[in-house]
Amino acid sequence: MYKYNAFDDAFLAERNAQFRAQVARRIDGSLTEDEFKPLRLMNGVYLQLHAYMLRVAIPYGTLNSAQMRQLALLAEKWDKGYGHFTTRQNIQYNWPKLNDIPDMLDALGEVGLHAIQTSGNTIRNTTADHFAGAAADELTDPRPYAELIRQWSTDHPEFQFLGRKFKIAITGSPNDRAVTKAHDVGLRMVERDGEIGFEVIVGGGLGRTPMVGKVIRDFLPQPDLLPYLESVLSVYNVLGRRDNKYKARIKITVQENGIDKIRELVEARFEERRHEFDGTDQALLTEIKTHFTPPSLRAGATDAYRAAYDADPVFRAWADTNLTEHRDADHAIVTISIKAHGATPGDASAEQMRVMADLAEQFGYDELRISHQQNVILPHVHKSDLPAIHAKLKEHALATANIGLISDIIACPGMDYCALATARSIPVAQEIAARFDDLKQEHDIGHLQIKISGCINACGHHHVAHIGILGLDRAGVENYQITLGGDATETAAIGTRTGPGFAYDEIVPAVERLVATYLEIRTGEEETFLETYRRLGMEPFKSALYPEAQKKVA
Amino acid sequence: MARPFTPKVITANDLLEGDVIYFKADDSWTRDLTEAELIVDEAEAQLRLLDAERQNISIVGAYLADAKAGENGPEPVHFREDFRRKGPSNYSHGKQEAEAHV
For A128-183, how does the pLDDT look when each residue is reduced to its tens digit (9 = 90+)? Predict the structure, then answer.
């Protein structure tokens, strides 16, 4: 993985020193909050309901064990012993003191991490497929390009004051695990005539006006990536609306102007921009790529794995749900669930972080990934090591076998932490997971994604959930709307609202009715919830949700 | 017709800790809502907010929040203020943690 060079180190140290001085000036009264706020936001510092929050970028979701241990140290030394992994491959600390944040940033700098541009109207952390570099279906590892984008976008003078935030996601696989169609720009690596390039998608996004991105360029040669991105950003910077915050994202710019006009303008700008690139970026990319050389995977028998699989039903259940096919047949990708039933989705204690770091170091070629689904991944594990890993995970409440199942819920922090939230999401997730664990139905239900947002900004990705839940404030009471049929993959779709929302104590029973209906009407175990919904539509689910309304009609 | 004025407290976050704080009648700040000044007059509320904002060097984002008179002092009206008063519901952190340590 990428290792900071002298320039990166010096840049970050200077930036952290600047912020340290800015914090000091706020505390001694030289800066007002109005002056200080944009400065702290540029460095990932929010003020939430009960405390400050520090959002640290995990570039393209990749960490080594030393970085994970440092995240644990921050949690223990300056927070309350845990961190929260987010839907954008970041980690958030919910309780830092303003005075301590400069020290936290310096500690992060020691291991090549930062919080720059994790907020504000800038280009945010570029997210990537969490199986990048390991997945069997991958064309090529997208992370060197993500790192190139990180370096290019960090402190890019032209893009520090965009009309609104700007999020890029990248994948090197045809199976989209990075939700590229719900980003301002999505990059999908594709092959044409033996050459690998990018399909560029623009104008996707969730929030109050959810949209599936549109293809602006079906094949972009690799060397054109930065000039083309600059052209997209440049057109957005000029055309994007600044009169209305809610219409400022590029999805609205694309919608209002039409994809054809945007494409025309971008191509014209691209013709100008590409000549300004003298090949330095390509030289840099070549250097970056040397940091992403795949680990030399060890060979060896996998009998121990087969034996454990046959002998231990608990291990088998975990292996069936939490492993993904690796490009090497003797290896597997391990997804560690940080969604134990009844726990807060995405939270890991300092101790758990250290355990995962140890496992990565001992068995996983020193690599870890954070997924937008708020889980942790060991991307390269020799199958013979899986029983030992599982045993260790069990000791630390990390062995939950629920990846892709109903309790593998994405949930934003909601009104338990977030100043923007209109309702809670964490307790709803906790109760749904605990309820279906009690029912012991989870594995029978199969693949089902529930995603919960505590406000219309949709950090919990509810629009692209099979069952989406949106928490709102209705006349001073928490109220939850349900959407069905969303899809976060390459066949991305926005879910459809079922009807009126449900009170806090009605939402879990409502989800239970939906699932019971699905179990009743599916053609068999192999038909997933989403497939059943696509086959039969909203009606059977609506009847289950609103039996009273149905009676009135009848 | 304008809506009738409902009682308010002034609340903000502490600059250093970020913790929720409330403005008292003596112009100092407390972490306990029951000790806050309950303001029942609309004109007075705006003036008191100005008083509170004079201390912007050590507080962040003062605003008027709906409250009602309770047995032991002001109580929240909206659930958001109720969460701010207590702390999150997934862990015993925030003010509920501080209370547990007393």
Answer: 999 999 999 999 999 999 999 999 999 999 999 999 999 999 999 999 999 999 99
* Start-to-end CA span in chain A (Å): 62
Q: Which residues of A touch B94 (CB under 8 A)?
A: 50-51
B15 located within any domain: yes
Judged by CB atoms closer than 8 Å, whether chains meet at A430 and B91 is answered as: no
pLDDT at A460 (0 to 100): 97
Residue B2 lies inside a defined structural domain of this protein: no
Residue A236, domain CATH: 3.30.413.10
Q: What residue of B is the nearest CA neighbor of A81? A: B93
Residue of A nearest to B20 (CA): A50
Residue A437 corresponds to which amino acid? D
How far apart, in whole angstroms, are the C-alpha atoms of residue A317 and residue A64?
28
- Closest residue to A49, CB basis, from B16, B84, B90: B84
Q: Residue A405: inside a domain, yes or no?
A: no
**What's the total number of domains in chain B?**
1
From the list B16, B20, B77, the residue facing A50 with the nearest CB is B20
Q: Is residue A123 part of a domain?
A: no
A532 min Cα distance to partner chain B (Å): 34
A416 and A538 both lie in a single domain: yes
Residue A360 belongs to domain spanning: 303-395
Which of B48, B41, B43 is closest to B12 using CA atoms? B48
Which pLDDT does position B101 carry in this prediction? 61
Domain boundary among A86, A110, A134: A110
Whole-number pLDDT of residue B97:
86
CA distance A554 to B6: 45
CA–CA separation, A327 vs A313, rounded Å? 26
Identity of the residue in A50, A473, A477 whose CB atom sits nearest the CB atom of B19: A50
Pick from B15, B19, B88: CB nearest A417: B88
Output the pLDDT for position A552: 62
Q: Do A427 and B89 touch (CB under 8 A)?
A: yes
Contact between residue A134 and residue A333 where contact means Cβ atoms under 8 Å apart: yes
ipTM above 0.90, yes or no: yes
Q: How many domains does chain A have?
A: 4
Give chain A's residues under pLDDT 70. Answer: 550-554
Task: Give yes or no for residue B98 having a pLDDT over 90.
Answer: no
The DSSP line for A87-98 is TTSEEEES---G
* Residue A115 forms part of a structural domain: no
Cα–Cα distance for residue pair B70/B81, rounded to 1 Å: 15
Residue A477 contacts B, CB cutoff 8 Å: yes
- Tell me if the pTM is above 0.90: yes
In-domain check, residue B71: yes
B1 within a domain of the structure (yes/no): no
What does the alpha-carbon distance between residue A355 and residue A398 come to, in Å, rounded to a whole number?
A: 9
- Domain range enclosing B14: 8-101
> What is the distance between the alpha carbons of residues A207 and A246, in angstroms, rounded to a whole number?
9
Joined tokens for residue A77: 């030394």
> Which chain B residues have any C-beta within 8 angstroms of a chain A C-beta?
13, 15-20, 56-57, 60-61, 77-80, 83-84, 87-91, 93-95
Half-sphere exposure of A65 (CA within 13 A, CB side): 14
